[in-house]
Design goal:
This is Succinate dehydrogenase. The protein contains 8 helices and 2 strands; from the N terminus they run αββααααααα. The protein is mainly alpha-helical. It has one domain. Strands 1-2 form a two-stranded antiparallel ribbon.
């Protein structure tokens, strides 16, 4: 701080720190683990979308990355409610039809933004660590201004969550003692927990209310969503790995690597 007279304004300057950070702990570990975790999800997702074995007839297991299956090329039992609106003209992997809905929801999620901003863009990589970027414009310009459509992806994510729940119930009806059935059920519960714990859902339930006492049902819904929201980070990671595990398990059964009668 510079010397001033009693009547002069006080001028403060930033501390001139020439090193990247004064932290001595392993601050780089968290962004590194986040980078590896998110990268594994991206790599697996590409493989799963291109893999053609995603359905197990008899157990009615369908891999989450390919559900709902809406193409004519889908096996008859795998088509969602027997519906194939895209007909025979669509020949690409069926999972590409719905990839953007859950993918867009997670990509624009408030928690995931923090995660990949820090781990992929190093903006910043950790608290009290300088970032390598020369300027910061926030989410006010392209492409990051598109993050504001997160609230709309939420509605599609709810539909996908209900579809995965339907798939789990269908598996429970056809193969109640199958290990895959319970893996699909756990995955559906975690997906719904993550989805309904979203900040947008919390705002939708009661974000604009001025008097909770006049809206008791919405207040109860808001209270429930708030509890999920407090665990949003944990549910984000748990649901991300659960959907990969469930998808991988179904594909291993479909490939014959895991014996179907005991699956």
């Amino acid at each position: 701080m510079t010397q001033t007279t009693p009547d002069a304004p006080v001028r403060r300057q930033r501390a001139q720190i020439k090193v990247r950070t004064l932290r001595t702990d392993r601050w780089w570990l968290a962004p590194l683990l986040t980078f590896l975790g998110l990268s594994s999800f991206l790599v697996y997702g590409v493989w799963a979308i291109l893999d053609g074995n995603y359905y197990v007839a008899g157990a009615e297991y369908i891999a989450p990355f390919s559900s709902p299956c809406l193409a004519e090329s889908c096996p008859e039992g795998a088509r969602f409610l027997g519906w194939a609106p895209f007909g025979e003209w669509y020949t690409l992997p069926p999972g590409l039809l719905i990839l953007g809905l859950p993918g867009g929801f997670r990509l624009t999620c408030y928690y995931y933004r923090k995660s990949y901003y820090r781990s992929f863009w190093l903006s910043p990589p950790a608290c009290s660590v300088a970032e390598p970027h020369g300027k910061y414009t926030g989410e006010t310009r392209l492409p990051l201004i598109m993050q504001n459509i997160h609230r709309y992806f939420f509605y599609f994510a709810v539909l996908i969550g209900f579809v995965l729940t339907y798939d789990a119930i269908l598996a429970l009806v056809h193969k109640p003692l199958g290990l895959g059935t319970w893996i699909l059920i756990v995955n559906a519960v975690l997906i719904l927990g993550y989805t309904f714990g979203c900040h947008s859902c919390r705002h939708i339930t009661a974000g604009r209310l001025n008097h909770f006492s006049r809206h008791p049902l919405r207040y109860r819904a808001w209270t429930f969503v708030s509890k999920l929201n407090a665990k949003h980070q944990q549910l984000a990671w748990a649901s991300m790995f659960s959907v990969m595990i469930a998808d991988f398990y179904v594909r291993m059964v479909a490939h014959g690597i895991i014996a179907f009668p005991y699956a």
